[in-house]
Amino acid sequence: MHYEARSFTLPTIPGISSRQLEEHLKLYQGYVKHVNLLYTELTELAQNKEKNLHVMQELRRRLGFEFNGMRLHEYYFGDLEGGAKPLAPESALFAALKAQFGGMEAWRTAFRDTAARGSGWLILNYDPVARRFHNNWVTNHDVGHLATLPAVLAVDMWEHAYLLDYLPSERTAYFEAYMDNINWETVAARFAATAAQ
Ligand SMILES: [Fe+2]
């Protein structure tokens, strides 16, 4: 099993500097590297399962942190590719957010409020069974995921995502900058695939 770090073609992002993005991308590449390292170590340790049982168990638990860190960053950076594009009012995602929250602005406020405290990920999940969204908070990369619910959008609210550009007290400005630069065509396509499950 081997994962390759994705390369992202990022435009100039108003509100998030290229230096900030470059440093952040290095962290993303670190998660990919450590997912691969963990699988390599587990394969080696499996040569003597009896002796290495507890070490292997701990490494598998570590995988949740590294794997989720890898995949969430791929959403985060991937949704900036192509530059800012608005969510089309005729899209299924627009209609579904409007139906549940009353409109895009009301949803965005509720989404932002979910990230009011702490360091981690702000995730918009969709439950295809109940046909409703959850504005969800994930501490670190791995604590608080809603089992089986696909992510529609993932916003990195770790300090490393913005501290080169913003003070800790300015994290809301960073959030707004990220949200203003999303390519919603990408997100709408992801939701369309999710909702069709
Ligand atoms: Fe990050």
Overall CATH architecture of the largest domain: 3-Layer(bab) Sandwich
- State the total count of DSSP E strands: 3
Major sheet, described briefly?
3 strands, antiparallel
User: Helix proportion of residues, in percent?
Assistant: 40-55%
CATH topology of the largest domain: minor pseudopilin epsh fold
Q: Give the CATH level 1 class of the largest domain.
A: Alpha Beta
Residues in β-strands, percent: 5-15%
Strand order of the largest sheet: 2-1-3
Give the terminus-to-terminus CA distance.
26 Å
Structural shape: globular
Tally of alpha and pi helices: 6
**Hetero groups bound?**
fe (ii) ion
Q: What do we call the CATH homologous superfamily of the largest domain?
A: Iron/manganese superoxide dismutase, C-terminal domain
Uncertain runs are: none
Mean pLDDT: 96
Radius of gyration, rounded?
18 Å
Elements, N to C (H/E):
HHHHEEEHH
Q: Give the domain tally.
A: 2
What class, by secondary structure content? mainly alpha
Concise summary:
The chain has 197 residues and is mostly helical. 51% of the residues lie in helices and 11% in strands. It has helices at residues 18-45, 49-78, 92-101, 104-114, 171-180, 184-195, and strands at 120-127, 132-139, 151-156.
How does this structure look, described?
This protein has helices at 18-45, 49-78, 92-101, 104-114, 171-180, 184-195; strands at 120-127, 132-139, 151-156. With 197 residues, it is mainly alpha-helical. It has two domains: 18-78; 92-195, 3-Layer(bab) Sandwich (minor pseudopilin epsh fold), CATH 3.55.40.20. Strands 2-1-3 form a three-stranded antiparallel β-sheet. Helix 1 runs antiparallel to helix 2. The protein is globular, with a radius of gyration of 18 Å. The structure holds fe (ii) ion. Fe (ii) ion (FE2) is lined by residues 24, 27, 73, 156, 158, 160-161. Fe (ii) ion is lined by residues 24, 27, 73, 156, 158, 160-161.
